Amino acid sequence: MSDVLERVKKIVVDNLDVEGDKVVESASFIDDLGADSLDLVELVMAFEEEFNIEIPDDVQESIRTVGDAVTHIKAHI
Amino acid sequence: MFTLTGRTALVTGASGGIGSAIAKALSEAGAKVVLSGTREGVLNEVAATLPGESAVVTCNLSDPEAVDGLAAKAEEVVGPLDILVANAGITRDKLLMQMKDDDWNDVININLGSYYRLTKSVVRGMMKRRHGRIIGITSVVGVTGNPGQTNYCASKAGMIGFTKSLAQEVASRGITANAIAPGFIESPMTDVLPEAQKSSLLGRIPAGRLGQGGDIAAAAVYLASDEAAYVTGQTLHVNGGMAMI
């Protein structure tokens, strides 16, 4: 469980091409990490694959920060 | 130039004149082609004439669930799809004042609705692979209009708007979306036109002949190719000059 954040971090770093130390739980994908809406869709796709879960569309909209993603993923794996 | 070796393609409406020509041309260019349509016998006959690997997956495009499952079925056979050619379409020609809701809904659902559904189901994989070619076969009348075809022209104009919007959404992921707008193409439908109507039709076409399926297929091969990577959101008119837009 504890490595969820690390795995999320790695996906975010790979997908958004950002420095690892910027990927903290409070970081907003769009405002802090430079993601656009299409990047968000791709991130969710990558999370779904990595953790083998389904993230429904309405939940996707509520995932704004790295912490949001980690919380959601932890609740569903 | 314009080789599609190692690429995979799904062509809907592949039993018709234009669809079968597109399937053949993609296959000749080296792509593995999945032919879709409702007439399995005809699809198998077309598949048998293709030089490369091909498969037939029937699908009734008026059934949304069937459309949603079509791409997955095609991918089971040939692997992840690189190219989608949404060619299937129907007409229910009537003057607006005589048009029934079913005439409107059937045409919009099959021509435009299935384009939406099918594209949505293939674009996710294309985004991951950073490569894809969406090609919608629209019509010259989607741009010019045509009396008796409010439903058909609306569906074809809708395909163009859809294609342009999609092109903007996915361009950064190596995916292009373009439309091809055929003019009058020789088909069983035009074969039965009375001679007088045929000659008045030809009078409007500077090239002096009806188009062939192959004329459209060549455009599809180009748009599907790596060389067309910088062409997106466009409508390529292939009409012998009958409308220059």
Automatic annotation (TrEMBL), chain A:
Record PTM text: 4'-phosphopantetheine is transferred from CoA to a specific serine of apo-ACP by AcpS. This modification is essential for activity because fatty acids are bound in thioester linkage to the sulfhydryl of the prosthetic group. 4'-phosphopantetheine is transferred from CoA to a specific serine of apo-ACP by acpS.
Pathway: Glycolipid biosynthesis; KDO(2)-lipid A biosynthesis; Lipid metabolism; fatty acid biosynthesis
Positions bearing O-(pantetheine 4'-phosphoryl)serine: 37
Annotated keywords: Cytoplasm, Fatty acid biosynthesis, Fatty acid metabolism, Lipid biosynthesis, Lipid metabolism, Phosphopantetheine, Phosphoprotein
Compartments in which it is found: Cytoplasm
Biological role: Carrier of the growing fatty acid chain in fatty acid biosynthesis.
Name under which the protein is recorded: Acyl carrier protein
Naturally occurring in which organism (per UniProt): Hyphomonas jannaschiana VP2
Lineage, highest ranks first: Bacteria, Pseudomonadati, Pseudomonadota, Alphaproteobacteria, Hyphomonadales
Gene: acpP
Automatic annotation (TrEMBL), chain B:
E.C. number(s) listed in UniProt: 1.1.1.100
Pathway connected to this protein: Lipid metabolism; fatty acid biosynthesis
Keywords: Fatty acid biosynthesis, Fatty acid metabolism, Lipid biosynthesis, Lipid metabolism, NADP, Oxidoreductase
Keyword set includes NADP: yes
Superkingdom per UniProt: Bacteria
Active site: 152 (proton acceptor)
Functional summary from the UniProt entry: Catalyzes the NADPH-dependent reduction of beta-ketoacyl-ACP substrates to beta-hydroxyacyl-ACP products, the first reductive step in the elongation cycle of fatty acid biosynthesis.
PROSITE patterns from the UniProt entry: ADH_SHORT
MF terms (GO), sorted A to Z: 3-oxoacyl-[acyl-carrier-protein] reductase (NADPH) activity; NAD binding
Catalytic function, reaction form: a (3R)-hydroxyacyl-[ACP] + NADP(+) = a 3-oxoacyl-[ACP] + NADPH + H(+)
Domain Ketoreductase as annotated: residue spans: 7-183
Binding site for NADP(+): 38, 87, 152-156, 185
Entry protein name: 3-oxoacyl-[acyl-carrier-protein] reductase
Assembly description: Homotetramer.
GO biological process, one term: fatty acid biosynthetic process
Source organism phylogeny: Bacteria, Pseudomonadati, Pseudomonadota, Alphaproteobacteria, Hyphomonadales
Entry keyword NADP: yes
Similarity-based family: Belongs to the short-chain dehydrogenases/reductases (SDR) family.
One Pfam family it belongs to: adh_short_C2
InterPro entries the UniProt entry points to: 3oxo_ACP_reduc, KR_dom, NAD(P)-bd_dom_sf, Sc_DH/Rdtase_CS, SDR, SDR_fam
